[in-house]
């Protein structure tokens, strides 16, 4: 049975990437060893990490002002590492658009003041607060946003702009490299890899180099300083070689798809198809505000909790897996990251139609 995996993360990887990794797992090029057995400083791995970085620079169109870093610990470690390096007792602004934003806020409070400029918590994070209402701190250390809210299923349609002199920082874990944006407007972007970039356990961090100089080296341990990663090319210690290798393959694949512009067209078509179907049905509904709906995580419901559970189970039986909503919000969720082909959307809609007929 053909499986379409709608998991929110770790999520589906492109099939071509999985096949390539499978082939190279036991024997990488002419090394006689598997990719995971080779020294991170040796002649085989160095070109892999260099190519991974070059791919990020190409895909995001980065200037030399930016560093590209591969850091262990996923996005959650960045929640702490950012304020540890950049806050230093000051005030940073946060837009609270979901569970992940609030986790970032909680960590920041350990290192300074986290000022919440706007929140949609009261309405269960069903929308993105309009930027004109944000109550921003003049001279804040940074402004932090979550570009796509994986659990609530909302997404910034347009990236906001921070006031002059305030670096804009975005957690892009669940929509990085899925749509075009102007990286030069950001001080930093970061993403846990397991949604759009590769396996879990690693974060991709893109950072304006001058920001790394803000760290107080006497207070932040070596492994937790951005400057260490910049100076050592992400190889102060043994880096997450499998994550970097897989990211290199995924980013090669993305370039073959026409880069971010190419995949964005496909992503827009996928999301439009699914939302159009849901909107045309009186059986299914979306809790997220229409104008803020995520093109990566489509959160929806059937008429009851019981039918939601039946939907998830029946879908699984026909090869449409991992459609259960996040445990905090319930319902159903189809995560349709870059690796999900349009055929997966067609199969899902086809099943949804049948389920509706059988259960309404
Ligand atoms: C998944 C996710 C995270 C957490 O990533 P980890 O790599 O598990 O730490 C953080 N932010 C967002 C928006 C996410 O979707």
What does this structure look like?
By secondary structure, this protein is α/β, with parallel strands linked by helices. It has 2 domains: 4-8 and 259-359, Aspartate Aminotransferase, domain 1 (Alpha-Beta Complex), CATH 3.90.1150.10; 15-256, 3-Layer(aba) Sandwich (Aspartate Aminotransferase, domain 2). The chain contains 9 helices and 13 strands. The protein has helices at 15-26, 45-60, 74-86, 99-108, 226-231, 241-256, 259-280, 305-317, 342-359; strands at residues 4-5, 66-72, 91-96, 113-119, 143-146, 148-149, 154-155, 168-171, 188-192, 202-208, 297-300, 320-321, 332-335. It has a 7-stranded mixed beta sheet with strand order 2-10-9-8-5-3-4, sandwiched between helices. A hairpin with a 4-residue loop joins strand 6 (148-149) and strand 7. Helix 1 (15-26) packs across helix 6 (241-256), helix 2 (45-60) packs across helix 6 and helix 3 (74-86) runs parallel beside helix 4. Bound molecules: pyridoxal-5'-phosphate. Pyridoxal-5'-phosphate binds next to helix 3.
The class by helix and strand makeup works out as alpha/beta
Bound ligand species: pyridoxal-5'-phosphate
Task: Please tell me the CATH architecture of the largest domain by its name.
Answer: 3-Layer(aba) Sandwich
Alpha-carbon distance between the termini?
27 Å
What is the name of the CATH superfamily of the largest domain?
Answer: Type I PLP-dependent aspartate aminotransferase-like (Major domain)
CATH topology of the largest domain: Aspartate Aminotransferase, domain 2
Instruction: Indicate the low-confidence ranges by residue numbers.
Output: none
The number of strands is 13
Question: How would you sum up the global shape?
Answer: globular
| Rg computed from alpha carbons, rounded to a whole number of angstroms | 21 Å
Order of helices and strands: EHHEHEHEEEEEEEHHHEHEEH
Mean pLDDT level: 97
Helix content: 25-40%
CATH class of the largest domain: Alpha Beta
Main pleated sheet: 7 strands, mixed
Q: Order of strands across the widest beta sheet?
A: 2-10-9-8-5-3-4
Number of domains: 2
């Amino acid at each position: 049975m053909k499986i379409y995996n709608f998991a929110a993360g770790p999520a589906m990887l492109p099939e071509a990437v999985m096949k390539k990794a499978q082939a190279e797992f036991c024997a990488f090029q002419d090394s006689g060893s598997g990719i995971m057995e080779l020294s991170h400083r040796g002649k085989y791995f160095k070109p892999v990490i260099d190519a991974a970085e070059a791919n990020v620079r190409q895909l995001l169109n980065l200037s030399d002002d930016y560093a590209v870093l591969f850091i262990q610990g996923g996005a959650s470690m960045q929640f702490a590492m950012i304020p540890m390096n950049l806050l230093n007792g000051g005030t940073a602004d946060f837009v609270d658009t979901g569970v992940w934003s609030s986790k970032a806020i909680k960590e920041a409070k350990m290192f300074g003041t986290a000022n919440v400029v706007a929140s949609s918590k009261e309405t269960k994070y069903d929308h993105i607060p309009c930027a004109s209402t944000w109550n921003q701190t003049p001279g804040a250390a940074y402004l932090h946003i979550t570009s796509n809210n994986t659990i609530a299923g909302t997404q910034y349609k347009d990236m906001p702009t921070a006031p002059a002199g305030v670096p804009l920082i975005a957690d892009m874990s669940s929509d990085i490299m899925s749509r075009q944006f102007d990286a030069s407007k950001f001080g930093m972007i970061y993403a846990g890899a397991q949604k759009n970039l590769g396996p879990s356990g690693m974060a991709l961090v893109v950072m304006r180099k001058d920001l790394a100089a803000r760290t107080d080296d006497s207070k932040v341990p070596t492994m937790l300083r951005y400057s260490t990663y910049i100076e050592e090319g992400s190889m102060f210690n043994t880096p997450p070689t499998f994550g970097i290798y897989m990211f290199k393959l995924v980013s090669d694949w993305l370039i073959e798809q026409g880069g971010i512009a190419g995949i964005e067209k496909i992503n827009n078509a996928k999301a439009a198809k699914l939302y159009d179907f849901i909107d045309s049905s009186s059986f299914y509904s979306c809790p997220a505000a229409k104008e803020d709906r995520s093109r990566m995580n489509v959160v929806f419901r059937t008429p009851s909790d019981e039918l939601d559970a039946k939907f998830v189970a029946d879908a699984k039986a026909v090869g449409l897996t991992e459609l259960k909503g996040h445990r905090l919000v319930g319902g159903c969720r189809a995560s349709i990251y870059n690796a999900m082909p349009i055929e997966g959307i067609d199969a899902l809609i086809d099943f949804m139609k049948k389920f509706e007929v059988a259960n309404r």
